[in-house]
Amino acid sequence: MTVGRAERRGAPTMDARSMGTSVRRIEGPDKVTGTAAYAGDTPAADALVLHPVQATVARGEITAIDTAAAQALPGVVAVLTHHDAPTLGDTGDPEHRVLQGTTIHHRGQFVAAVLAEHPEVAAEAARLVVVTVDEAPSTTAFDPDGESYVPSALGNGQPPDSTVGDPDAALAAAPVVMRAEYSTPMEHHNPMEPHATTATWFDDRVEVYEASQGADLARQTLATLFDTEVVVHAQHVGGGFGTKGFLHAGSVLTVLAARAVPGRPVRFALGRRQMFETVGYRPVTVQRMALGAEPDGRIDALVHDVIGATARYKEFVEPAGGSSRSMYAAPHRRTSHRAVPLDLDAPTYMRAPGEAPGSFGLECAMDELAVALDLDPIELRVRNEPSVHPENGLPFSSRGLVECLRSGAERFGWSTWERAPRRRLVDGWWHGVGVGAGTFPAFRMPGSTAEITFTGGRYVVAIGAADIGQGARTVLTQIAADALGVDVASIAVEIGSTEVPVGSIAGGSAGTASWGSTVVEAADRFRDKYGDAPDDGDHADAATPDNPWAEEYAMAAYCAQFAEVAVHADTGEIRVPRLLGVFGVGRILNPALARSQLQGGLVWGLSMALHEESVVDPRFGGVVNHDFAGYHVAANADVRDVEVAWIDEDDPYVNPMGAKGIGEIGIVGVAAAIANAAYHATGVRVRSLPITCDDFL
Ligand code: MOS
């Protein structure tokens, strides 16, 4: 069903003057001149350095801790253990129960901490703490056929299973059936800026500089734990990728330690290796796909059964089957998720949690089905384009998938390639092309407040948004300018702190949609009250308005990713000379920032396809390749042409700006496009990430 123009009445998008232009990053000069302070380098005279003591076994009970030698080291100010830690309030998150008992849940868990004047002393003292542990048997190796359970919910809050019709019967009756198992590894976020906390405890409050995707969520967590007033600052954040959404143990440990030395700042900046131990990761998935189709390509049955790892002490289940609920039409369908509990640090949200690994299973399976049907993989997708959401029957507010596929094919030169694999050998390299599609939900988080005050000839717009590199300051300035009908030079945006009104997190690709809708609401109120000629001190505020269309339309962003791959005929070395992503993401608010963010997403996808994999040593439960030497993230030499394009899309239902989130959709479908291109190049089907040389030998 197509949504007619008449039905669109009542949901206009705002007129754009500044929106749609490439306003330069407001904090750009601060960043390139090195004056932008991050949590770990916020000036703090006299700061004490925290060095943690970490568990060296995956599971067990602490029977004794001897801190005498550490205490005796000159320059050591305090050594904290569970014996002297305060009892913390309950946030419901087991990661926050720092130094609250003797149980070890995972290797790397913080079991004590040293505060010292200098980092070298703190590190040496931590080494001198003797922890005696009664080790218990642990399971840290993922076995998809081992003990598993039905999780209570997926990481995105969705139910673990969904079924429409009778997929097993439909598969049994389908003329063409494609079944295959795909797997994705454990991956760590590795933002350029590691987690860091600088905390000072005063009489009436604790003040915290935190590397965080949301200052207010950090404040709420710390206020619950410590039952005190908490002020959090997060002005600049060097990448989040999901790991800086919820507070992890290191932040709690730092605030806990600061309490022991009132008035004195305490700093804990995680080292790169510690980034593999206590701040989450994307868990392993095994995805069992089954597609049953008619000879003309129409899919009768679509099954996506996922088995994924979770931590035994804290459930987080990667919603890898999520996009299979909405991508393609099929009268009979099932998604399911089973969780395998392991004695590891808890997994968490990472770069399109669910959609990124899930699109590897679904989009490779679609490619394999196209091969089985001898059909163009783009045509197969187009033939299975749903007219309404295949599970809940809602119309789509807008859905640009087919347009993305078609315009991408044109731009990429898709039709110039023969469909059969292993046809193009150039200078010893097999070349091929592949496509992968994807989706990411468009929604709005509740709970922000925006305040607008006219002062000194400018509109000060305050909202606790987080700029994690995406350019929140800049784009909120543009939205406010258009909502108030003024030039961007008349706007001053204040974000990144709990000293401005509350903002929801920069997460779920919903930051701009959530804060922007709130700013527009406050601007509307401001203009209703004061018109366009305000006086000094005029003021209005607003909370995030509900989206009145949220229950009436299915809302999501779409993409089509194209890859050209070259595989060396002798060595199996794999390279990606060309990537193209075409996006249907509503209105683009700032083309320069959007291109940068989407391009970054494509690079994440390349990195996921060819490089990223955390390897757990099952004997000890630790990640062995815990640094940039062992865990490779795509670098300049890996990245060649990465092109980003978008379709002209107007979606009046998502928010007043007409913009869908672009934070995560860039990665979705990329790994599948690369794997499909590798098949096309070589005739070798790789179903397990990352794809490496040995897959072709
Ligand atoms: Mo994103 S993984 O929701 O920060």
UniProtKB/TrEMBL annotation:
Name of the protein this chain belongs to: Xanthine dehydrogenase YagR molybdenum-binding subunit
InterPro entries: Ald_Oxase/Xan_DH_a/b (IPR000674), Ald_Oxase/Xan_DH_a/b_sf (IPR036856), Ald_Oxase/xanthine_DH-like (IPR016208), AldOxase/xan_DH_MoCoBD1 (IPR008274), AldOxase/xan_DH_MoCoBD2 (IPR046867), AldOxase/xan_DH_Mopterin-bd_sf (IPR037165)
Comp. bias regions, Basic and acidic residues: 1-10
EC number(s) per entry: 1.17.1.4
Gene3D superfamilies on file: Aldehyde oxidase/xanthine dehydrogenase, a/b hammerhead, Aldehyde oxidase/xanthine dehydrogenase, molybdopterin binding domain
SUPFAM superfamilies noted in UniProt: CO dehydrogenase molybdoprotein N-domain-like, Molybdenum cofactor-binding domain
Region listing for Disordered, in residue ranges: 1-21
Keyword Oxidoreductase: yes
GO function terms (MF aspect): iron ion binding; xanthine dehydrogenase activity
